[in-house]
Design a protein that fits this description.
By secondary structure, the protein is mostly helical. 76% of the residues lie in helices and 0% in strands. It starts with a helix and ends in a 9-residue tail after the last helix. 22% of the residues are buried.
Length: 194
């Protein structure tokens, strides 16, 4: 999956560069379209019962989604002058790591816990917590509760991953929206810099 995602990143940058003569905003709409188009592949990957189909869905989805990296860095470098590029990259990396890598896994876990609680309540076991379903606490559960735990735990994580994958479409939409102002905001090099 990592290799497919890396190929998608490089391919998006290469293709955007090739298209930029005829389509100056390709560096924004190409990653945006890729993020939006990745969602069905992630949905397929997280809902199939076939390991190979899941792998294909994750690889194709990752190749499409991770093209955003080419656009993200190119645009962030293009809308600031040369004197501020290092600061722009530092801010971008700080926010991406804080929000995406820092809060992303916490969001998935919190969403999974919330969905677990809603699912067990719907199945008539409202007092059953995720902690009671894990580790040594599982041995104290009744036979039906242990089965309910296994089902609810897997389904809640699956749904949290589906929700998160659906959010990629919003990222893609923001890339597409940025096309409206991108050419106006790109900093053109001064004649002395050329």
């Amino acid at each position: 999956m990592a290799l497919a995602s890396a190929v998608g990143t490089v391919a998006t940058g290469w293709l955007a560069e090739r298209l930029s003569a005829r389509h100056p905003n390709a560096i924004a709409w190409l990653p945006g379209a890729g993020m939006i188009l990745s969602v069905p592949f992630y949905v397929w990957a997280f809902t199939t019962s076939s390991l190979w189909a899941a792998l294909v869905g994750l690889c194709v989805g990752g190749a499409m989604k991770y093209g955003y990296l080419a656009g993200q860095y190119t645009i962030s470098q293009g809308v600031v002058s040369a004197q501020f590029r290092a600061v722009a990259t530092a801010i971008l990396l700080f926010l991406a790591n804080l929000l995406g890598y820092g809060l992303g896994p916490l969001f998935i876990g919190a969403a999974s816990d919330l969905l677990f609680s809603l699912q067990v309540a719907d199945l008539g076991a409202a007092g059953l917590s995720r902690q009671a379903c894990e580790g040594a606490a599982r041995a104290a559960l009744a036979v039906g509760q242990a089965e309910l735990c296994a089902t609810a735990s897997a389904k809640s994580l699956q749904r949290a991953m589906l929700i998160t994958s659906g959010l990629y479409a919003f990222g893609g939409l923001f890339f597409l929206i940025s096309c409206r102002w991108l050419q106006r905001d790109i900093v053109r090099p001064a004649a002395a810099d050329r």
